[in-house]
Amino acid sequence: MLETTMDLQLLHRAASAYYLDDLRQAEVAERLGVSRPTVSKLLTEARRIGMVRFEVLDLPAEDLPALEDRLRELLGIAQVRIAPGDQIERGCRGLGELLTQELRVLQLRRGDVLMVSSGRTTYAVSGMDSLPALPGVIVAPTVGGLQEPDRAYQTNETAGRLASRTGAEARYIFAPALPSPSLWESLQADPSFREITGLWERARAMIIGIGAPYRGRESLTSVVPRQEPALDAAAGDICLHFYDDRGRPIEYPGSDRLLRPSLELLHRIPHILALAAGTEKVPSILAGANAGLFTSLITDAPTARAVLAEGEAAAAVA
Questions:
Q1: Does residue 43 sit in the same domain as residue 75?
Q2: Per-residue pLDDT tens digits of the chain, which is 318 residues long
Q3: Counting beta carbons within 10 angstroms of the beta carbon of residue 92, is it exposed (0 to 12), middle (13 to 18) or buried (19 or more)?
Q4: Domain at 209, CATH number
Q5: 202 and 99 in one domain?
Q6: How many domains does the chain have?
Q7: Element of type H or E holding 283
Q8: The pTM is what?
């Protein structure tokens, strides 16, 4: 939380005018009706409390386009984009900037459906200022999650943040990710839920995170059991679809009632943009590509190198 004795709204207006609208301090002062020294104090305070952040990017230490090409060929997908440096340390800002570029290439139009999954990475990028304007685009969550204590797994929250940043229109699922058998039956005839599944059917693009291997995983939605033998072999998950190291689906008791798009539906979506960073996700990325669950990967340089090394070593042994 931003802690300051100064007016947060005034701080935000000053910072936005100076850093986003490129106004001079004298022009900011005129816009806000304050003195120029006051503007200087507002900008200093905005930086101090973290409302304004600066990042100095590393110079590329390697040929990232060449690395992208090698990884794309290894994974057998349409596109790989790599951000320099460790994006976990940098709050995934580089991933968000590359996602922005890919969304612009897609040229989503009014009425197009963009699905978004839950997870820490998708939640982080959903609130970034760099995201493009998407007026009239419909953002739909992929899974339920009203009961989740962690905002990163409240998919409605991620969808709402993304819509707010881009000017898109959010739709919501008013149900938990794992409903009871009776609620599951009721939802099949519920008009609001049928609207969501209808949006899934005509989705043009989707933004997903890739879950790490089940064993030793620290971050996990509450509806997935922590001690489930059937999931011990799970190399990762996408939209609560768990899979083994060969990309084969893994089910467990209750998973037939999860509110999630089917695998068949996921395979029909033209553009699935996967965001993943962290070397612990190397097996998750490789197996997810084997499963054909994403068409594009946005990652960082350390993760890309690790995926490439493990994938090429496995291919050499085979």
A1: no
A2: 567 888 888 989 999 999 888 899 999 999 999 999 999 999 999 888 888 887 766 655 568 999 999 999 999 999 999 999 999 988 999 999 999 999 999 999 999 999 999 999 999 999 998 899 999 999 999 988 777 778 888 899 999 999 999 999 999 998 888 899 999 999 988 999 999 999 999 999 999 999 999 987 777 788 888 888 999 999 999 999 999 999 999 999 899 999 999 999 999 999 999 999 999 999 999 999 999 999 999 999 999 999 999 998 988 776
A3: buried
A4: 3.40.50.1360
A5: yes
A6: 2
A7: helix 282-290
A8: 0.80
